[in-house]
Amino acid sequence: MYDNHSLGGSMSSIISYMISMLQYMLLFTPFFIIIRGVWLYVKKNKKINWYHEVGLYALVVYSIGIASQTIIPKFQIGMNGIEIFHGSLGGTNLIPFKVFQETYIEVFYYGNISYFLINFLGNIIMFMPFGFLIKLIWNKIPVKKVILIGLGISLFIEICQLPISRGSDVDDLWLNTLGVALGVGVYQLLNKKWNPFLKRFSIEGEKKK
Fold first, then answer.
1. 103, 155 in Cβ contact below 8 A?
2. Is the pLDDT score of 206 beyond 50?
3. 77 forms bridges with which residues in the sheet?
4. How many domains is the chain partitioned into structurally?
5. How far apart are CA 71 and CA 64, in angstroms?
6. Scanning 19, 33, 105, 202, which has its CA 20 to 30 A from the CA of 25?
7. Are 75 and 84 in contact (CB under 8 A)?
8. pLDDT value, residue 83
9. Which domain holds residue 81?
10. How confident is the model over 76-130, as pLDDT tens digits?
11. What are phi and psi of 99, to 5 degrees?
């Protein structure tokens, strides 16, 4: 049903997203190091939990990576300087669960597997790190609160997307939130086997000693 061109295009798009995210994440890294270093200095932290710092770094720069693909305008540096691309106004979907109908039509009528992999599955997977990392670096935070934070992040993105070309979709809210819940689930599964190690990333876990 799905030709190699469709699958190849999906992989090409996914790799392109990942490379673009990585560029922004690496670009922001020096700023994170400086800002976090100043913060720790001002707070006069004598004992630094480097595991926690690594987890916090991962959460912050991943957030930047996601923002680069959702709300930060695209730009490129050329002969005319820095050019910013806003594009035309994107579409808005306020009908819940419309994604099921659209995915069915795209996949089974047009053989467009990319729609399922990127628009449906992608919206879930890209939010899984939020659930995992938030629970990792603050392990005492209730699961419900982590899920609400994930919902809040998704809602913030959708609101910011209203005036820009990427558009906004109510289905992204529950798909993203589902991803956060699955991320928490992955953490809890790993925590059963590697609890002593994962606890090192959390300040709460450190204080409990």
1. no
2. no
3. 82
4. 1
5. 10
6. 202
7. yes
8. 55
9. 4-207
10. 555 565 555 554 445 788 899 999 999 999 999 988 888 899 899 999 999 999 9
11. -60, -30
Q: Quick: pLDDT tens for 133-163.
A: 999 999 999 999 999 999 999 999 999 988 7
Of the CA atoms within 13 Å of residue 24, those in its CB half-sphere come to: 22
CA-CA-CA-CA torsion for 24, 27, 29, 34, nearest 10 degrees? -130
Could you give the C-alpha distances from 56 to 60, 110, 148, 191, in angstroms and in order?
Answer: 6, 42, 19, 18
Helix (H, G, I), strand (E, B) or coil at 41: helix
- As a whole number of angstroms, the distance between CA 27 and CA 68 comes to 11
Place of tokens 């809040």: 152
Please give the radius of gyration of the chain, using alpha carbons only, rounded to the nearest integer.
19
Record the pTM.
0.86
Q: What pLDDT is recorded for position 207?
A: 47
Residue with token string 């994440």: 25
Residue position matching structure tokens 């994107």? 90
